[in-house]
Amino acid sequence: MSERFDARQELPGFEVVPGNVPEMSEETRQTLARVILDETVEIVTNNRRAQVRYDGMNDGEFAELFRPLVDVLALDPAIDRPPLRVSIDRASKLGMVPSQKAIYDRTTLSKIQSHLGFRPKFRFQDWMKADYVAAGKRLAQIVGGRPTRFDIQGAGKGEFSQLGDFPTVDEVKGRFGRLAVFHELIGYPSCRGWVDDDYMDWSTAFYRQNPSATITARNLDNLSASGLGPSRQAIYSNYGSLSKFQDLSQQHYDTVIDNESFERKQRVTDAIELSKNHTSLSEAILEFDQHSEQDRILQISAQFRLARHFITDATPSELRDMSLIKNPNVFTRSCMNKASGSLKAADIETVALAFGVFDDLWPMYRFDSVKLNLC
User: Fold this and answer.
1) Strands, E assignment, the chain
2) Alpha-carbon gap, residue 16 to 51, rounded angstroms
């Protein structure tokens, strides 16, 4: 049988209202911290919290009502993560802080955390593009299709318990610029406002997933009806006829594949040339065959360049070891830990794009996540 905690019985005389917690002994603080953090303990709700109104408070005054939770959990905003939503809910039952509903009725949790001194977006600074995409796909499975803005907003508030941590709408937009980009990455493209490059990129993704197929009217109808591509009418409006689109898209696909093959060979050559001037890189790629293990050589070279860029005081042996890390995601987090200053996963991805090595670490073509396979 689970433990049941009633503060009025366990802590006689300990009267609290949200934001106003009396001085307490270290023993009392530890007791409250244990009860808040241990979700197996059933907390008897303190109904006095309903007597408190927040209408006359400004945002700063309201945020300060959560300070007692930070103190009870003995958190240092400079180094610790902010309290979890579940901790806020449990502290609210004890009457120590306002509820989550009270937060979202007037502001956001991230603003509360920022006012209390926690670094904004702490939870997601180490999230890579792939982490956002994976979380978005899980949300899509839960809601049964393209997540709306309100679905993402609810996920950011923790309304989908089976989902786990999820960024807010602002955090998603801050990372990808527009929700439409995020939707496309998780498999739900929006064809509104497409230009020729968009249609060609989509057709290339179609041919990658269906190497021996042709884009027919029926294929367009089926994919469009599923929200996975442009309609037949959009093709006619932009290209005049389906046959013209078929010809142009097939030519574009052949050109893309040829260019990718040429550029890949050139990057391998560049990596070998770079290794001649850097012993650390030379030692790292020495054991790999230039023809059969190109993927690994390109990954090692990319990680070497990024490590040298971000970890300016790294020794040659450290650069070699960083270059040889097998998982690019592990490399990214290692880079964040070793680099001086505050480095986010997005910073590393941005520089990887600038260096032209992003695809050597995280191979992905546009519309990769869109299910265009006809089988």
Assistant:
1) 4-5, 42-43
2) 12
Beta-carbon contacts of residue 57 (< 8 Å; ≥ 6 apart): 65
Closest to 121 measured CA to CA, from 75, 69, 175: 175
DSSP 84: P
pLDDT of the residue at 76 = 86
Q: Two tokens at 70?
A: 């930070």
Please report how many Cα atoms fall inside a 13 Å half-sphere around the Cα of residue 116, on the Cβ side.
27
The amino acid present at 85, given as its one-letter code, is R
Exposed, middle or buried, 51 (CB in 10 Å: 0-12/13-18/19+)? exposed
Query: CA-CA distance, 80 to 161, in Å (whole number)?
Result: 23
Report the alpha-carbon distance of residue 132 to residue 306 in Å, rounded.
22
Lowest mean pLDDT among 48-57, 106-115, 365-374: 48-57
Residue 98 backbone zone (phi > 0: left; psi -120 to 50: alpha; other: beta)? beta
Q: Assess contact for 1 and 76: CB atoms under 8 A.
A: no
pTM: 0.64
CA 267, CA 305: separation in Å to the nearest integer?
13
Token pair, residue 266, equals 């050139």
Task: Identify which of 121, 169, 131, 162 has the alpha carbon closest to the alpha carbon of residue 147.
Answer: 169
236 vs 301: CA distance, rounded Å: 45
| Of residues 46, 62, 45, the one with CA closest to residue 54 | 62
What span, in angstroms and rounded, lies between the C-alpha atoms of 67 and 262? 59
Nearest to 287 by CA among 312, 323, 319, 256: 323
And the tokens for 357?
């090595």
Dihedral of CA atoms 179, 182, 184, 189 in degrees, nearest 10, equals: -20
End-to-end CA distance of the chain: 52
- Angstrom distance (rounded) from CA 82 to CA 65: 15
pLDDT in tens, 77-119: 877 778 888 889 899 988 889 888 888 888 878 778 878 887 6
DSSP, res 151 = H
Whole-number Å distance between alpha carbons of 165 and 163: 7
Q: For residues 300 and 360, what is the distance between their CA atoms, to the nearest angstrom?
A: 9
Answer yes or no: are the C-beta atoms of 69 and 116 closer than 8 Å: no
